[in-house]
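Batch job 17 of 40 flagged for manual review because the log was empty.
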Amino acid sequence: MAGNQDLLRPPQTFPTLHPDDQRAAQRAGGTTTSFFSGASGVNTGDIQYFEASHITVHSGGGVGDTSNDGWELLLNNIAPNALHDSSARYDAPKCDEDTRVEVTDEIMQWIQNRDAPQRLLCMTGAAGAGKSALQQTIAECCMELDILSAAFFCSSTDPTRNTIAFIVPTIAYQIGLKHHRFRGCVSAAVKHDSKIFSWSLQSQMDVLIVRPFESLRKSHGLNTNTFPYVILIDGLDECIGRYSTTSHPPVADADDRRQAEDRQAELLSAIKRCIADNKDLPFRVFIASRPEWAIRTALKPGGYLQQVAYHIELSDKYDASGDMRRYLQRRFEDIGLQIDDPQWFSEDAIETLVQAASGQFVYVATVYKYITERRGSPAERLKVVLAWTPYKGQVVRPFEVLDRLYASILSTAKKAYEAVDTHHGRDFLLLFRAHHMNVGDFYIPSASVYLGSTLDDLSALLGLEARAEDILFSDLRSLVTLEKGGGGDLRLRLYHKSFSDFLEEESRAKELFVPVSCVCTYLSKRCMQLIIEWPLIFDPVPNEWEAFSVVKRHRHALREVAICFSSFLRGANTLDDEIADFTHHDGWLKLEKLLLLYMADAGVWLRGGNSWKKWTQSLLHVTNNLAVSDLPLF
């Protein structure tokens, strides 16, 4: 590296011995041994010679160290594909010129401010927010500035890059390439104990990175001011903990998921203890990840990284809409030059795509990839994207890449949630779909009503415990977030509009699709269960709802029953047996009492246009169907 005296220093030179001199050097005995008789230009480096029957050689690991066993062992435990310029990452995504300028500047300012107290930068963002493109751009900037020490780009689909095990050795390897004496120390450490790669990550980092650096610094063997100091780790969430041979993003089972999270947390803890807390080291570490469990809990208030890490929340802090316009404009103009038709697209088309992207670069990148596929017309493919609506048996699938991403994340979250013993019998997809419907004010087409509830109230009606949403959405934080509304209530927000489209279309979600009717069926059963279980016999009827003497959470759930029950019934699948049982347990009488109580509450009646007229119309529709089937109602 330029400016690094150890790298500019010419290699140690060893002479070529004549045959007579070689034989002399090999002879045993004699009062004086001459190794380099007649030689010139000899630099013996760190070799110490003792006139005795045993010779000890101390080597700093530079040229002339004939023992490479340790380095060879290290090479067997690295991931060459993870380097920022590896052939496996050919044409890796990076930021276009004049895009992501603000966030790139913030990152580079942090990197170059070596006096800043925080030596760890964590950037979290939704799936498809452009984190890897930013990391690649930063890696190339740091290479140009001669400050990149090491980089590791994780990938869930590469068996050498989806495991934590290779990260520390690969970083040590890259640092060793930049300083021959550092390399010698690493080689010696590995040769001393070849089992080092089975040690804890903190121990590996200490022996392979911290100690070699400190040893050289104390011996004045390097200049810390000129030593490359930037370490980049991209896609921490993609380290699933063990090898995978699947060709698409793997769906780990619950045990694998927990082990992966534990290993990710172990790496973060090791970086904190060995690098972030060590003021004698020059390194600054930049980690990018989806906001999954390991990094999310470490960065939250009270987390062990909150005080030591500089945190950039990419999806929340930066609006990438302008960058996406420039990205599409530039690329569409290039296509126009190639097909000799500069008018093949319109500004309105670009704006439509930007709005559909919801701030996530993965959408526009997917669209561009589809439009530029070989042997296709860009103009025709653009029309397909703009007008595309899915239907069964459709061959054209412009968003197939996105669908695989969503399916992988959703399937993994389902397995992780349903594997918890206290969640036994719960249907993750149904619960999440209910909350997703509530984002759009819970529209039920068959009843023509919107039934938007607060997140807490809907969870209570679904039978979830208080604040269960944190757990329900825990493994979906790369796609959704919880935020406070104007009244202080928590609300679910989806980062991607295209994710909402995916959930609503069976042809895209496939086996992960949950129809509205299934959600209404489940909620109808819950309403009947709540009415039957709670003793709704009042004498007299309370004057207001809050005087209803049940636990607040259950009171809120029963309020949702009063508002929504008839609409849920109308939107549900056949429930003849359940309604018969509800009738047998005096459910209709209890429902009447519940409605009287609700209407007595300051004359307030139903929300979102679900008037008393619509409420009764929905119930009459259900009862008429029951009459046709000869099912006794009252």
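Reviewer: the log was empty due to a logging misconfiguration, but the result itself is present. The chain has 26 helices and nine strands. Unflagging and moving on to job 18.
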